[in-house]
Amino acid sequence: MSAHQKHKSPSVGDTFGLWTVGGKPISTRRGRLVPCCCKCGLQKDVCLTTLINGYSKSCHKCTSVRRGQAHTVACFWKKVRKTRGCWLWIGALTDKGYGNFWDGKRFTAAHVFSWELEHKQPMTFQGNHTCDNRQCVRPSHVYDGTQKQNMEDASRRGRLGRRSKKNE
What we know:
single chain, alpha+beta, 2 domains, five-stranded antiparallel beta sheet, two-stranded antiparallel sheet, 4 helices, 11 strands
């Protein structure tokens, strides 16, 4: 709605962000409320002023999902130091030295999160590094491979050291 229409009541079917007006405004002690439906299907009475001024563009669930994804990605990149070669994870590390990142739902390996961002799909197997740097999150240095492939790579590169027996 334009500025000169602010005082006009919204009509059924008008949209404001993800909200669609479903009825006439209702006067209550809390102010004028407009019955609305979010695109996700949630029905709610939204404050008329909040709706018209653009302060509410969707229900809480939809807003937190949209903000959450952008916020999570921004937080991720704040913990990466890009160099000419590897992009180093400067956030929390696991006890084995891999980057550890909270993606909003669970802790995940930072190099896997980066690969999934780049490829826009979940990793099928596990994130194997081509650069042998556990802190590297550069997507081009990670591939979706099996544990067998990882062990073959480690052997080929001489990373499989002999384990010593404790009582020798």
